[in-house]
Amino acid sequence: MTEALQWARYHWQRLIRGAPRDDDSRPYNYSSLLACGCKSSQTPKLAGKHRIVVPHLQPFKDEYEKFSGAYVNNRIRTTKYTLLNFVPRNLFEQFHRKEKKYIDQCWKDVTVGDFIRLSCNEVIPADMVLLFSTDPDGICHIETSGLDGESNLKQRQVVRGYAEQDSEVDPEKFSSRIECESPNNDLSRFRGFLEHSNKERVGLSKENLLLRGCTIRNTEAVVGIVVYAGHETKAMLNNSGPRYKRSKLERRANTDVLWCVMLLVIMCLTGAVGHGIWLSRYEKMHFFNIPEPDGHTISPLLAGFYMFWTMIILLQVLIPISLYVSIEIVKLGQIYFIQSDVDFYNEKTDSTVQCRALNIAEDLGQIQYLFSDKTGTLTENKMVFRRCSVAGFDYCHEENARRLESYQVAVSEDEDFTDTVSSFLSNMAKPRAPSCRTVHNGPLGTKPSNHLAGSSFTLGSGEGASEVPHSRQAAFSSPIETDVIPDTRLLDKFSQITPRLFMPLDETIQNPPLETLYIIDFFIALAICNTVVVSAPNQPPQKIRHPSLRGLPIKSLEEVKSLFQRWSVRRSSSPSLNSGKEPSSGVPNAFVSRLPLFSRMKPASPVEEEVSQVCKSPQCSSSSACCTETEKQHSDAGLLNGKAESLPGQPLACNLCYEAESPDEAALVYAARAYQCTLQSRTPEQVMVDFAALGPLTFQLLHILPFDSVRKRMSVVVRHPLSNQVVVYTKGADSVIMELLSVASPDGASLEKQQLIIREKTQKHLDDYAKQGLRTLCIAKKVMSDTEYAEWLRNHFLAETSIDNREELLLESAMRLENKLTLLGATGIEDRLQEGVPESIEALHKAGIKIWMLTGDKQETAVNIAYACKLLEPDDKLFILNTQSKDACGMLMSTILKELQKKTQALPEQVSLSVDLLQPPVPQDSGLRAGLIITGKTLEFALQESLQKQFLELTSWCQAVVCCRATPLQKSEVVKLVRSHLQVMTLAIGDGANDVSMIQVADIGIGVSGQEGMQAVMASDFAVSQFKHLSKLLLVHGHWCYTRLSNMILYFFYKNVAYVNLLFWYQFFCGFSGTSMTDYWVLIFFNLLFTSAPPVIYGVLEKDVSAETLMQLPELYKSGQKSEAYLPHTFWITLLDAFYQSLVCFFVPYFTYQGSDIDIFAFGNPLNTAALFIILLHLVIESKSLTWIHLLVIIGSILSYFLFAIVFGAMCVTCNPPSNPYWIMQEHMLDPVFYLVCILTMSIALLPRFVYRVLQGSLFPSPILRAKHFDRLTPEERTKALKKWRGAGKMNQVTSKYANQSAGKSGRRPMPGPSAVFAMKSATSCAIEQGNLSLCETALDQGYSETKAFEMAGPSKGKES
Amino acid sequence: MTWSATARGAHQPDNTAFTQQRLPAWQPLLSASIALPLFFCAGLAFIGLGLGLYYSSNGIKELEYDYTGDPGTGNCSVCAAAGQGRALPLPCSCAWYFSLPELFQGPVYLYYELTNFYQNNRRYGVSRDDAQLSGLPSALRHPVNECAPYQRSAAGLPIAPCGAIANSLFNDSFSLWHQRQPGGPYVKVPLDRSGIAWWTDYHVKFRNPPLVNGSLALAFQGTAPPPNWHRPVYELSPDPNNTGFINQDFVVWMRTAALPTFRKLYARIRQGNYSAGLPRGAYRVNITYNYPVRAFGGHKLLIFSSISWMGGKNPFLGIAYLVVGSVCILTGFVMLVVYIRYQDQDDDDEE
């Protein structure tokens, strides 16, 4: 199905909203900005929240006119953003045929057939075919995180035939037509062709299509033609919009509304029958059976039938239509309060909780099962290089660990983290230096050759990032990931690296230090074995392809020299630098190339670098003196720093940015850079690495075997520039790599023996890393001879070109290459737990929520993270389900079940018998804490029909379930299974595209707006920025929302029934004739005005327990899980109370006025008044907290009632026929009996509930009521009471606790904070290291003692400074 | 604008007591100790009120007589029997004799009471035209449809006043005679029949149509009286201030009663020698028996009642207050027990 695109303007219906058309003429007026500000119809309500400042409308207009005049013949305005760079994201250039130039347009105004020109970092406004890119190869990089959550860059290509053009495509001359598919939602497919005027056709594919919502990266400008716009774009078609979910509470309320309907029908039937009977007694009486106009009277039967409908009209208020309106209003209010909670605010991302679903907030208070993703949800998804093991030696990177831990502190203290970083760097004897931005202000920073530095991009500074609003920072480049502090021991070994090592390879040095070679290879592998794209944030990649080689003007070289001379004194004391091979040209090169490293990590001066070199070099005898001297001098070296850093070429390096497919890769590259092995550039042909002592190395890139999930590894084949050999560097999962290592041959060469030792040690280290929850990767290499390589290449080429089963052949080919590897080492990357996750998980556990972790990660990592985040406790009994067949799975499950049953049967007997009486043992609460680990494969079996039940039964015994290696589909199936079979409320939280299905299936889906794009957020009902916010969202807001809304709904039922029944009772005294004793305006307004606001305010503001108490006592959440506030019987009790109150409210005035000369409306007046007070005071009794708003609304309601009654009674003489309450209120207000009746009615009506509440408060307070007492206590009393509460809580569940008690106690103390956790963790791990040091160290480590001494000195120095 | 002044993030929520839900609040914690004094206070107050009400209600005298004319209940049974089965009963008179052993403390109000009369029947109650009754000439000629079938007469003339309520106007009349000495002559007791309707009804709500040539009869020309009426509306009373729509009896009748058993004020006795009440002696009430009630099983009663600050005799309020007050006191004692017992427990808990 193809559809020809008409070249003519395609007028397309704006479904979003009928925006005024004249926006076109005033492109910068406020409303159009608003329209642009909200990207699509999904979030129109946010428009009002955006604060858009529109400075200087007039100057822009002038400017615009000037440009329009100046560029009449110039089709492209290139200077647009110099003036108005505050909204570049929303506006873009578009070609207008008439005006022959690009003008700024709003997204909504883009139509099919428009030409659009976009610059770097702009968001693509519509699906368009790429026609031009400034990239010479016709490539455009786009970031698709908005669509699929992948934050790596993807390449798109200019349509064939257009790539060769060097000038921009000229829309004027574009005469081809495009045919393509009609709009569809398949993101991964696009088919069509472009037909030139000479009937020549060029095929179009997905590679040519830029999708709406993606961002242009690394490409200066692109031009494209729109093929799908607006709602037809693939992104929009993929977005089904927020799903409408009904909350559990509302479903519950709906059934009760049905009951109300039943009640109404019964009441109306009563009326109908009653009227029929009544009328039959007076059939002949024309007093009562008023004849029709034509004189005949209707039969009682018919009159009864009519009466049924009359009664329905009269009593319809019983059906709480207004309830739904009020519920919506209350929900809006609740959402407002959730969104404006400061505790959810995340300063780093300037984001707060985002409620995308407006109607299920109260479900947050009833969650029983929580399904959480791991990566990015529990963890930060910031891969941080933690440790590595090279050639069998473990480098624990103590300093780095310490940096990480105090980074957290710094962030929480809201400080500029550069302070922290620099304090670490000062540990390394590197004093603080100005950041990149100060460089830019430096004396040389304004040099024209340096204009790139002008777009100062301070990677090192968090505030710098926020100051660049329109360009998201490159992926995975937050400082915590990029700044790696090298391990000193490893740096020591680095200092031995000299180019000499490689130059004569095997002749001069008889015994090449194998370890050093390993280290070199290891870091080279880290730097090049990846698919990282190097870029500067505002810079197309091609500009920095050969930065330090080509771009060294002579002038700057001279400056370098002069700098060197200035520091030559110190320099001479550094033997390592002296040993450079070329005296004049090589050294500056090496020098400059090293500089970027430090200026990148933390902009530093050559001074510092030298100092560090000096201090680290073991031969330096006077190191300490040297250090202090430099430090002293450094304070006034600011100017020099500026000079040094503004060297040409260097700012580029400073801005080097690595954009990687996965965060792990980026972390490894950054780690390599920390060891001065900097990945400088990457082109399809070669990779440039700047290696510390070896200078820039250019690797000829022969081949990349990309990562795939079958092989679980990737390889690069390069030609080593020094040895000129073909080398394969492989990086992959430990389990895979270990199997591919070259097997030790029996002849037992020393080399191979050593390799065996390394392998064993590395395996040990790997296990150790995994225990700490680190993600491990193995690095290996293989040297090939040219002939071997040629042979492999031939086969590989065959595989690549074959058409049938190409994938298999390629896999085979890769297998052929990746074997007999030499293990270089392993890395441990930490995916750090988010701040506050263990505390949140613990609180949620205590709140009775079962937490399942569903992750795609491997078992070890998942279990480790589960322990780290307290999902599993150390003394939990762990069951691991990892079977290969369904039968085995079933068997295993039944044995585990049996074991569990046996244990719980045994337990209660052991503990105490008296407790049994108090609390019968429930499997869930029994003493055994168990955790279940299940792998993806086994999960597949467990999810099958026959094993489902067993699986669920098993999981119900376990406090925590961890599913590892789960696919996105499995995740959603698990959620679905639990939700439908156990009939529980489920919540799914995740951050990535792989969690979307799970999020959508769960009752509540929560998206974590993290690193992996917006897809999870788009699918979610609530979006939070961090996992820790979940605890407050559930425990406080969930509880509040649920309690408030359920109480409000109950109150609404009560209110309606209580009021309507007054009318019903009256029917018994008016022959069931449907008379109301109230004027119908009062009847209408009673619900609409007088009693409508208080319940809404109650629903929004009611606060049964304060937030602090709710957070401190997560147990209170259980009341919501059990729906205690709104059970079926609560509804009936409420209804009974309503009946009682209405009876009282009717019969007290009835008996008072019985037999008197009272008339109808005068009888109704005290009824109404008393009912109003009863209904309002009922609310006051039920309210747990009353603010001035409550009082205002209640008093307002009363006043409005009286005001209305008085004014209406005075004004309405003949209005509102046939009768009106003329002057009745006035009469009554002078009548003491009226007041007496009202007071009596109120007292009798409210007495039972009041007494009940009072007795409940004293005799059997619910946990919530008890907790409420805490809010009144002073802080000291409060802590005491809390302790007591917890003690009591424990007493209640003695069955569960003797093993757990100590853990519970310690856990309940306020947590020392995540940093402490990390501190403990790193401390222990390092302690292990210290213990093993003797094993680790060999004779090669001559500088060890000094290093250790330095390590000891380092921290103390840091404290001083 | 507050946001322009601050330098915080664009999405940072306001940190105010309201948005953070930290408004100072009164948090009533209902418990026995707090409710205890409340119950005792309320109980005492209610008992006090109840006693006052009870005694003032007890002080009110009422004298009633059912003159429906059930066989054997007096001479009205003759009239009742005579009127039976007729649509328009013949004029008939009967009398009620009673004697007061002592002074009937005034001011004395004379009521008539109808039972089982559903004035609050919806179709009956809506059958009226307030616009017509307010003297609107257009409404006089064009009564609203709710009045049907008493909207127009058989001749097609608009009925004034239209509707079932007006049609069923109570038309018995009473006169009170006092015999000071036994065997002495009966002296007519002056009945004050003015001011028996609400002041606002009489002066504002009910108006005669504008006079034509100074004549009310001409103003009503072209209308028909309700079918049950013997006289046109402008002849209800010879007093020009009490005839037409502003006839007090009519106005009183038109304020439809709330309950099927109701009283309506007929007259007040406050003139001459009777301003202090009815002195002791024998009395006779002459009753013009017109109104048929037997058809719907109703009764007609005549009531003399004195009045207090709380209106007519009504023991219910006083008794109810007494009962509620006692219940409050009782609950108060229960609370006391609860308080004493559970307070100890709380103290134990504290330790």
From TrEMBL, chain B:
InterPro entries: CDC50/LEM3_fam (IPR005045). One of its GO terms (molecular function) is aminophospholipid flippase activity. The chain crosses the membrane at residues 34-55, 316-342. It holds the Pfam family CDC50. GO terms for cellular component: endoplasmic reticulum membrane; Golgi apparatus; phospholipid-translocating ATPase complex; plasma membrane. Belongs to the CDC50/LEM3 family. This is Cell cycle control protein. It comes from Pongo abelii. The lineage of its organism: Eukaryota, Metazoa, Chordata, Craniata, Vertebrata.
